[in-house]
């Protein structure tokens, strides 16, 4: 086998030829561009689904990989903690790094290839001088609290799209603004990539799964539940309209003094502008707040108006932004 650091020493020809055999043996692990190129060339199927992650994989990531596995001939998982999307005061240095456990999840879920490069492989000349700009949608909500975050995120997503040469890319609704911006990048810059949204995976108590949940103490975790509770309360008020949704969600957050709320918004899914009181249709109820030392985000797509309530994902996320702009 001319490439890579395959974890097991199974090297038979059939192992290379069929995804199921490859999956059983564990994914091919690639650390360099050359290894990726060689391993990617071995993937013979027509559809190649890619799941991009920063590692510290949990059931949310596993669900993305599973969806990708169901849909495509081959699955590539990338594990890369992208320094470009972390601010100087953010948690890059303490972000959990759990490669062996991550690889076990990729193996269990049948990934064919894991690309886990170091920063100097992704950015061989240091920080790139040319970057993707997220534009105005990158300066609100998360972008307001994390300046430059979305430019750094889009830049690495674009690079990983090119490097993996996938045909479809799977992203979680958990990071709603990220997902929207990736869709906009694909549309605005004519990427031929199919973007698939996967609903947020939650713990049984409602907390959205996140690699950052590892930072939470037991009591932090109790406090953090108010975020998903607020979303559920807001969504339950959806038939009554926007101000009822905001009021119901805010009431839950106000009752929890130990959460430092950054924002709670009900916005249009593609413009991210506050929806007015007359609005009926799909909207994004999103919240961000600090619990202890940990900043958490969560959201719920909601249908506002008669028969409304929580949705898993938006029904037509690729609708032209112009037609839906508020
Ligand atoms: P991350 O490793 O946090 O950058 O996340 C990698 C991908 O997994 C992104 O597309 C996230 O939106 C997605 N993801 C993270 N947490 C969840 C979750 N709880 N449910 C669904 N998708 C998730």
Instruction: Give the strand content.
Output: 15-25%
What is the CA-based Rg, rounded?
20 Å
Helical proportion? 25-40%
Largest sheet: 6 strands, parallel
Return the string of H and E elements. Answer: HHEHEHEHEHHHEHEHHEEEEH
The chain-level structural class is: alpha/beta
Strand order of the largest sheet: 1-4-3-2-5-6
Characterize the overall form: globular
Number of strands: 10
Report the uncertain regions: 1-19
| Euclidean distance between termini CA atoms | 55 Å
Average pLDDT score: 92
Question: What ligands does this structure carry?
Answer: adenosine monophosphate
Count of helical stretches: 12
Q: Can you tell me about this structure?
A:
The chain has 326 residues and is an alpha/beta fold. The protein is built from twelve helices and ten strands. The chain has helices at 13-17, 19-25, 33-42, 59-71, 99-108, 119-122, 142-145, 149-164, 176-188, 218-236, 242-254, 321-324, and strands at residues 28-30, 48-53, 74-79, 113-115, 168-172, 194-198, 259-267, 281-291, 294-304, 309-310. Helix 8 crosses helix 9 (176-188) and helix 10 packs antiparallel against helix 11. It starts with 12 loop residues before the first helix and ends with a helix. Adenosine monophosphate binds at residues 53-54, 60-61, 63-64, 171-172, 174-175, 198, 200-201, 208-211.
């Amino acid at each position: 086998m001319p490439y890579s650091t395959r974890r097991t020493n199974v090297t038979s020809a059939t192992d290379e030829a069929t995804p199921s055999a490859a999956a059983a043996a564990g994914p091919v692990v690639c650390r360099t561009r050359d290894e990726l190129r060689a391993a990617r060339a071995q993937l013979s199927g027509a559809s190649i689904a890619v799941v991009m992650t920063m590692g510290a994989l949990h059931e949310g990531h596993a669900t993305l990989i599973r969806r990708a596995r169901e849909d495509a001939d081959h699955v590539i998982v990338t594990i890369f903690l992208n320094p470009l999307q972390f601010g100087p005061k953010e948690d890059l240095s303490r972000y959990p790094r759990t490669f062996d456990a991550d690889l076990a999840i990729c193996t269990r879920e049948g990934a064919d290839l894991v690309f886990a490069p170091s920063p100097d492989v992704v950015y061989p000349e240091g920080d790139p001088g040319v970057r993707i700009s997220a534009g105005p949608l990158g300066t609100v909500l998360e972008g307001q609290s994390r300046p430059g975050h979305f430019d750094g995120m889009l830049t690495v997503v674009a690079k990983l799209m090119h490097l993996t040469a996938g045909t479809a890319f799977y992203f979680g609704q958990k990071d709603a603004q990220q997902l929207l911006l990736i869709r906009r990048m694909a549309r605005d810059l004519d990427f031929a990539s199919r973007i698939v949204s996967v609903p947020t995976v939650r713990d049984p108590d409602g907390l959205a799964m996140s690699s950052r949940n590892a930072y939470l103490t037991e009591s932090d975790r109790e406090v953090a539940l108010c975020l998903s509770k607020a979303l559920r309360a807001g969504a339950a008020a959806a038939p009554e309209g926007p101000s009822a949704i905001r009021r119901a969600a805010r009431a839950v957050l106000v009752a929890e003094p130990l959460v430092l709320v950054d924002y709670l918004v009900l916005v249009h899914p593609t413009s991210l502008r506050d929806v007015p009181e007359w609005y009926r249709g799909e909207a994004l109820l999103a919240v961000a707040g600090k619990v202890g030392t940990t900043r958490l985000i969560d959201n719920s797509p909601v249908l506002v108006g008669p028969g409304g309530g929580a949705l898993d994902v938006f029904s037509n996320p690729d609708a032209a932004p112009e037609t839906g702009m508020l």
